[in-house]
Amino acid sequence: MGTDIEKLVDLMIQERMQSQFAKWRGAETGKEKKADYLRLETEYEKAISALSEEQKDAVRHYCDSIFDSGAESECFFYRLGLKDGIRLWKFMKKLMKTVS
To answer: Are 13 and 75 in contact (CB under 8 A)?
Structure first.
């Protein structure tokens, strides 16, 4: 049961992070951001096209590893913040009962 709950929490965290990231990117994305992204993508494709297939795979694997480790860190800190928020909420609830 514990792993099912952990999987559900992980899924909820991922969905929340993706939706918030999309809102954040949508709010800040303008013509300049799109142009910067396209320029960067073009430069990446130009640089990687000069490599052999083995080197391309190595670069892509390296980039994927960087993105994956960043995603793991974000998930860890999001979950940590969520736990802190729940602890604070429980503390405040207990405090309000004591004061009442």
So the answer is: yes
Q: What is the DSSP string of 2-68?
A: HHHHHHHHHHHHHHHHHHHHHHHHHHH--HHHHHHHHHHHHHHHHHHHTS-HHHHHHHHHHHHHHHH
pTM over 0.85: no
Query: What is the pLDDT, as a whole number, of residue 6?
Result: 76
Ranges of each domain in the chain: 1-50, 52-100
The residue-averaged pLDDT of 11-19 equals 80
Cα distance between residue 49 and residue 53, in whole Å:
9
pLDDT of residue 55: 92
Structure tokens at 25: 């990117």
